[in-house]
Amino acid sequence: MRFNLSEWALHNRQMVLYLMILLAVVGALSYTKLGQSEDPPFTFKAMVIRTLWPGASAEEVSRQVTDRIEKKLMETGDYERIVSFSRPGESQVTFMARDSLVSAKLPELWYQIRKKIGDIRQTLPAGVQGPFFNDEFGTTFGNIYALTGDGFDYAVLKDYADRIQIQLQRVKDVGKVELLGLQDEKIWIELSNVKLATLGLPLQAVQQALEAQNAVVATSFFETPAERVQLRVTGRFQTVDEIRDFPIRVGDRTLRISDLADVHRGFNDPPAPRMRFMGEDAIGLAVAMKDGGDILVLGRALEGEFARLQQNLPAGMQLRKVSDQPAAVKTSVGEFVQVLAEALGIVLLVSFFSLGVRTGMVVALAIPVVLAMTFATMYYLGIGLHKISLGALVLALGLLVDDAIIAVEMMAIKMEQGYDRLKAASFAWTSTAFPMLTGTLITAAGFLPIATAQSSTGEYTRSIFQVVTIALLASWVAAVVFVPYLGERLLPDLARLHAARHGSGPGMPDPYATPFYQRVRSLVGWCVRRRKTVIVLTIALFALSIFMFRFVPQQFFPASGRLELMVDLKLAEGASLSNTTEQVKRLEAMIKAHAGVDNYVAYVGTGSPRFYLPLDQQLPAASFAQFVVLAKTIEDREALRTWLIQTLDEQFPMLRPRVTRLENGPPVGYPVQFRITGEHIDEVRALARKVALKVRENPHVVNVHLDWEEPSKVVYLNVDQDRARALGVTTADLSRFLQSQLTGSAVSQYREDDELIEILLRGTEQERHELGGLSSLSVPTANGSSVALSQVATLEYGFEEGIIWHRNRLPNVTIRADIYGKEQPATLVNQILPTLEEVRAQLPDGYLLEVGGTVEDSTRGQNSVNAGVPLFIVVVLTLLMIQLRSFSRTFMVFLTAPLGLIGVTLFLLIFRQPFGFVAMLGTIALSGMIMRNSVILVDQIEQDIAAGLQRWQAIIEATVRRFRPIVLTALAAVLAMIPLSRSVFFGPMAVAIMGGLIVATALTLLFLPALYAAWFRVRKEEGESP
Q1: Taking Cα atoms as reference points, which of 437, 438, 441 lies closest to residue 476?
Q2: Structure pTM?
Q3: CA atoms of 112 and 110, how far apart (whole Å)
Q4: Beta strand 848-852 with 672-677: parallel, antiparallel or unpaired?
Q5: 105, 570 contact by CB (below 8 A)
């Protein structure tokens, strides 16, 4: 005898009850232990290789350093792209690993890269520092604090920041604490070049004297018969005054350093990248969570620590919160839990209204058990709660009641027909358990392309597949084990009620003979009779939906619902840091006076640290600054964005501003990008300018620019080699002298507690800042005298490349643009592309014009999902074949899959929702949901024919019998999507599934019977019985 699980459940009721209680408890405990975060865990497949070559121009760095590193990196073959820039004295190569590379293989790849670059270290020019490797890009500093203090300098602030860092490191779940915007302390000795020349004192003599005085040299010790006595020579600098009073012998006179120079303590000059909070210089403390931690638990622990630390600071010093990810997660998780509760309420209402209170109760009790099983499995597999898995839970909720509704509905109908509880439950198992399992597996298979997508986008959305599949399989187990038990306990004696209402005996009325079912019967009958009309109409609708689909806006991922705005300020390449700081202060003053701002922070000379996982991080550059402005509400954020765009446009015409919301999904950067790659920089740039002109013609794009366009100013010192040799001046001497005069040269270190402070010699402020006085500087010669710079070199003003970008070893210029309106990047790129044909036709051999930005990333993500579609088709066809065992029936069910597109297009157009990556996943999954209903219906028709009904009658009767469960399950799924449709991230997917399911359910009940009749040429005469 075949094993019947539902019958077993009713024979072992205590066991089933125990299992239900156990699962509920385990599930509830698992839920409390699930890690909570804002975004799913996500690997940044990038490594940055930075090399310094002081004194070299951008072109020299590009040819001698960058190109060699790029060439070696290409040998790995595992790259998506190798992007690099070369600046004067600096090379930075970013290796982006292949998108399809599994994250687990990255450490091995990073090791190979380090090894390969290590092999060519000797071939790099002399004087090169590095290469330095950085592959830690995924660390998200969810909590950032700013330490500010009016009247306190950086040294005191750093002292307190160090103490706070130690204390934060003790907090449970804290992984890493970094200090931001630090300025190193220096002791500056500003020597007047004129004074030195007048006194005939060589700069070198001053350097050597200071170095000799402050050096730490072993002095030895006395070995006496009893003891060993150490010797210590004094004279090392203990205070800055001792440096000022340090005597130097000039000829027959002794002078103090203070007579020749100004000595003072200070900080990096020009400053290192710094952080400013609410218009004040600050030191930032960025806190990252350990892997797998719970951000809300960490948030609570940090709150307590934060309050305690604030009390221990001196008066005037403040520790303030800049970024608070736990609060953002609490809000988003709270919203999703609310959506989940609303969806649960809707599903229960559907069950109670359509099935009656006691039958609905069975479904209502099955849901928590399924959710408990889902949470337990999620905990076991290490899937945490974040925006993707929570959205998937809501999506699963609409689907997981299907099996319970189908099982309890079948049980109820059979009891009405006079079966006892045990027989009704076992009949539900034999008639629907396996079609139901096939349907469940087909629905889960709809999410397979996400599971197999080998891309960063696939990795970001993978938990949709995991959570939905777990929930669906759990729902089938519940439907065949727990629902019979609950039904046996809760269902009223339906046979008695039915008999009381309609009488009993062999001729008793059929439950399907009510007036409502009669109307359904006649409608299905009409569709089967007019089968050609129905099929042609359906095909016409499908063709129309494909045609109309082009009018649905395309999107990658929607903007995030977080309250931060990012404001980038980019000055001309080669602009000074002090100029950048001035612009930042101007904007700070404007933001300060504006309403609706909670706080704002500026990072001068660099971009913001990664406080949000999908942040598009910016690289350090003297001509760049980035603001993070936190609004009070979403409405304030939008008002602030409009105001900032307008203000920056009007008030800052000399720089390139950019205002963006935070994005969802893997970071992209500028939404509209076109790339020109080729061999010669000038040619590439000329072509890029032509493309930029075409892009500017589109009225919807703003801020169109090339990523490197303006050359930097440079002063060439043309040395008269003959004269220089005669005077004993070499090129290297001249370079070192100017380095010392303008930037400063280190002479020694001042030791204070655990700090090592550099002592630097440089020229006076006037000599350093006046370019006009450069030619009159006195250069020391080999014989100890000095000569004016104009005697050995002439000055020539010119331009050179300030930065050179490469992509896969070739010069590359990117044309970038922003969209400030409602338009989608894909739509605009499709509008712009045809206008670029003229430029494309002019491209020399080997030159490329490519689309970048959102469209490129979206296509890559889409292709990785599409690669999984064949597997999805094979799995679905196999499942259908196992269930239906007929080529024609399998093919017929499969044909219904794409019909959901009619509803998808209709709803997306009505609700003006864009078709994004998440909506695409929903549409693929929708085909699984549609086939599930078709399988159950076709299987029912086959069962009826096997039971002896004529084919015509079987088609109509099976459709009538499956009408209620199919409509109810679709209704539950559609209505459960309503709360989800409010979500910014999952909204388009919810709308697509709602529309697709509504239309597809109607088509399953009307088009499928007509298709079945047409396919098997069923005639009306067969169905007419006497």
Answers
A1: 437
A2: 0.83
A3: 5
A4: antiparallel
A5: no
